Every structure is written in C-alpha cells, then in structure tokens.
Amino acid sequence: MFGIDAAELVLILVLGVVLFGPEKLPAFSRKAARVFVAVRDIANNAQSQLRNELGPEYADLKLQDLNPRTFVAKQFKDEIAAIDEARRDLASAGQSIKDQASSATRAAKESVASGGSTPEREVVAAEETAGLPAPPRAAPFDPEAT
Q1: Which of the residues 48, 58, 107, 118 could staple to 54 if both were Cys, CB 3.0 to 4.6 A apart?
Q2: Tens digits of residue pLDDT in 94-117
Q3: Which keywords belong to this entry (predicted)?
Q4: Mean pLDDT, to the nearest integer, of 56-78?
C-alpha cells in the first residue's frame, strides 16, 4: 500500500510500543488514523473541486496528469513514437551496413588468400600502364624538424 512490507510494519509497531508505551499506543493510533482520513478527504475534495471548476472536458482529470513530466510526455507521445521508430530504423540500417562491411572484408581476405589481386595492386598497375606519374609519397618523418 505505502511500500511497507510486513517486517517494516512489525518494526514500526515495536517502536510505537517502546516509545509510547502500551497504554498510550491505542490513542496515538486512533489519532493517526483520523489524520490519515482527513488528509485523504482533503485530497479528494481538491480533486473534485478542480474537476468542477475546469468543466466537463477535464472530467477524467487525474492528479498524476498535473505532474509536469507526465504532462510533457503525454503531449509529445506521437513525436516520441516517431523518434523511437526512426531510432529502430537507424539501428537496423547500421546493422545491415556492418553485415555488408564484414562480408566485403571476408571476400577481400579470401581473394588475397587465393592469390587474386587487391584493389590497390590493380590501381597501381592501371596507373603504370596509363603512363601516369606515381602518386607522391609522404615525406619521411624527421623528429629533429621544428
């Protein structure tokens, strides 16, 4: 009911007996019950008064709906669903790209293992046959350079 299990309830009762004594405990428990009922009645009256003042379009008003986080989530429910759908689509597209990349890598490794030519070798061979100059190589690294 309040998130209290049996062990906690027994602990509260034992503390009540120790603090108030067995002769005062029934009076305190009756007062606590009256306070609890009064608070519950105040909350119910406030909720019914809100319903009456806001009109029939708010007849199904719940106090949880007045929480700002709940209100925002309720208003943007459709947008959140669209974002979740886009997220799922992107995740599936990413997975398909990973699958294609792994299959391409596997095919390239098989081609190299079987003695086939690699794309880099084919490009160099094509440049040599076309008479194009070789691409410039990077300058060697000089650790003493400024």
Answers
A1: 58
A2: 999 999 988 888 888 887 777 655
A3: Membrane, Protein transport, Translocation, Transmembrane, Transmembrane helix, Transport
A4: 74
Return the HEC string of the chain: CCCCCHHHHHHHHHHHHHHHHHHHHHHHHHHHHHHHHHHHHHHHHHHHHHHHHHCHHHCCCCHHHHCHHHHHHHHCHHHHHHHHHHHHHHHHHHHHHHHHHHHHHHHHHHHHHCCCCCHHHHHHHHHHHHCCCCCCCCCCCCCCCC
Predicted TM-score (pTM) of this structure: 0.35
Q: Look up residue 42 and give its two tokens.
A: 């105040």
Contact predicate 75/82, CB 8 Å: no
Tokens matching residue 123: 């490009």
pLDDT tens digit sequence for 70-82: 777 777 888 888 8
Report d(CA 33, CA 80) in Å as an integer: 43
Rg (CA), the chain: 37
Query: Dihedral angle at the C-alpha atoms of 89, 95, 97, 101, nearest 10 degrees?
Result: 180
